Amino acid sequence: MLSYLAQAAPASPRSGVQYVVGTPPQTPVLRPLRQPLYDTELMANGQVNKVGLFVDNKRFALTGAAKNEGDTNMTQSGQLGYPLEFDLIGFLFEVQRGATRTAHNNIYNRTVWKWYFGQNVPWLRNKLTKMPEGIGPFGSVSVGAAAGEASIIANGVGQVTNFYNFTTPDRKARRISSTESFRNDLEFGQAVVLGSGVTLRVTTFMLGIL
Fold it and tell me: Is residue 102 part of a domain?
């Protein structure tokens, strides 16, 4: 009204709280990825100490050498990390391709496979002979005088449905939260015979949805 009467309006006092209006950050979109989590460790000739997988995603426990993406796709050691979750449906276990039949048989016949998550109690304890490899070569091939040491071999028929089912009795996946710890231990009843100076890679796959 004062301005209408050609009188200057008094200036507003510069006091109080000033607000800045900004665009709030968008909520991150988490898309489910139907892919396994996997980790690899080394097993040496004469191995008697247990081998732990998913324990260190940076280096091999046996040698201290760095792991690469072919060895593991874990981004943390023993956990998923916030805000990830994993719906676990089963497992696969794989011995490095090129292992001799003797080494392969020794690994499977002398190893107990254990799975831990959430606490230091094994949720699954099984003979390694019951852990399939899934897709892969099947059987063995004889090559001349080395027929006794054929190297193309796998534990189970090469089918995508060939895995150790770890779902609940009503066929639901087991949810692993972002902060739950987990690992896979390989324990041996007696020393594993792989051949003098031989070291082999062994890999465990967690099948499910990330």
Answer: yes
For residue 116, the cross-strand partners are: 122, 183
With beta carbons less than 8 A apart as the criterion, state whether 61 and 53 touch: no
The answer to whether position 112 is within a domain reads: yes
Range of the domain at 73: 37-209
The three-state secondary structure class of 192 is strand
* pLDDT tens-place string over residues 124-168: 999 999 998 877 666 666 555 555 555 556 666 666 678 999 999
Residue pair 95/75 in contact by the 8 Å Cβ criterion = no
Q: Is the dihedral of CA 181, 187, 193, 197 positive or negative?
A: positive
Residues facing residue 175 across a β-bridge: 87
d(CA 35, CA 162): 16
Q: Which residues does residue 144 pair with via DSSP β-bridges, in sequence order?
A: none
Alpha-carbon distance of 209 to 6, in angstroms, equals 72
Quickly list DSSP for 153-182.
--SS-S-TT-SEE---TTSPPEEE-TT--E
∠ CA 129-134-139 to the nearest 5 degrees? 70
Whole-prediction pTM value? Answer: 0.79
pLDDT digits (tens, 9 = 90+) for 19-65: 666 666 666 666 788 889 999 999 999 999 999 999 999 999 999 99
Structural domain count, the chain = 1
In-domain check, residue 48: yes
Query: SS3 for 118?
Result: coil
Residue 84's nearest CA partner among 185, 177, 190, 197 is: 177
